[in-house]
Amino acid sequence: MGFNNDDYMQGQLNKQYRDPKESSVKQTLDDEPYDVDETLMQKVTAGDINTLQQFVRDGEVTYAEIVKCYWNQVLKYKEYNAVIALNPDLVKQAEALAYDEANDLMYGMPVLVKDNITTKDLPTTAGAAVLKDYQPEEDAEIIQRLKDKGALILGKANLSEWANFMSTDSSNGYSAIGGQTKNAYGEFDVGGSSSGSSVAAALGMAPVTIGSETSGSIIYPASQNGVVGLKPTLGLVSQHGIIPISETHDTAGPITRTVKDAAALLKAMTEMEETADWDNARLSGLRVGVIGNQAVKAVYRSEDEEVMSCVKEELSDAGAVVSSIDIDEEGFNVNYLNILKYEFNLGVQSYFKSSAFTLDKVLAYNKQNEPDYAPYNQELIRQSIEEKYTDEEMAETIRSNKMIARKALDDAFESVDILVTLSNYATVLYAAAGYPAITLPGYRRSTGEPVGVTFIGKNEQDMQLLEWAYAYEQQLMTRK
């Protein structure tokens, strides 16, 4: 787990800020801003979903004015390279909407969508040069569900190319189509692969954004940019219409500024009937297990011990019963890289429903001009093509990984209700198990770099996890 050491971090900072790459196919936002009052724009882009709906209900603003404010906010911060494209029909779509108490909370709300998620009215590129002109004919299932509830697709967010499964030497947040995404808080690692979604949420470019995660791709960039990121229970969110890495691990999820907004977006994406009980969300009596394994502490960075001490204090002050807990070490030894390679190759062909578009085509296209199209190489694409595994071998690896990771977590959950760590330090556990995790903002290192507090919950208890996260969010706000 050496991803977090000084050499890795310095390498990422060099790539992202000292020597950022820009390809010949990078898209630029040449759209014109709308004539919007600056005071109104500040008021709107600072609001959460409930506040925005109240503004519309009270006649202070229209849905069209809301989307114009966010459109302008995207253009205001376009040098962060968080957004690849804007929806040209956005305002027209918003003008057709009117407030009704019966509407879903997401009605009329603009959403930025990671650009590996299919949108029929906008290109879907995965950040890759070979897909610069690809425009799907239908929406991903989660996008259609949002549209059915009246949500508006503001545009497509940048990402680490191919959801960061192109090269082990990649730059977090870089894609040929979107360029290098920059951290919202300064010259810090932006995180990957849902970097654009996280930066956009942090800078108020949309009230809510959608990311996707295979292993840390929501939790890490959300942590790095001081926003809420939810990796749902595997299978809760439909993957239909999302360019895949691994069906065994992939899931889309919300990235927002508040826990309530994450819950509203999750509910709209999934048709969940369960709702959170915000009024009774409490930490009092909650049994919290702070993961104490050396496998986690080995990746602590400067000041992380101090941050975790503050987290324990905050939880205890809220009435939680906090203890250190060691997870079965076997859970940290799960290796699923071969699963990702195996399923990536099959998944891309299945997604495009064509034997004519495979990873072989991607590899060959990039080889035409690798310094331009693949400046950080494409070794994971090549390995996904060349390395061969039998179906039986992979089925057994998947079964074994899930069993080991779930046993490690379930054993821990016999004595605690929730597990806590920082950022994506325990990703291997919940990724292999398919369990939900949420990261919350609230702490920064002395440099100003954000670091998120991450809760890991029990299988299929996403709303309960959100309730506890909300209670902790309120505790942090009270202390501030």
UniProtKB/TrEMBL annotation:
Specify the Amidase domain's residue ranges. 72-421
Question: What is one Pfam family matched by this protein?
Answer: Amidase
InterPro entries hit by this protein: Amidase_dom, AS_sf
| Residue span of region Disordered | 1-28
Quote the protein name from its UniProt record: Amidase
Q: Which organism is it from?
A: Alkalibacterium subtropicum
Write down the SUPFAM superfamilies for this protein, in alphabetical order.
Amidase signature (AS) enzymes
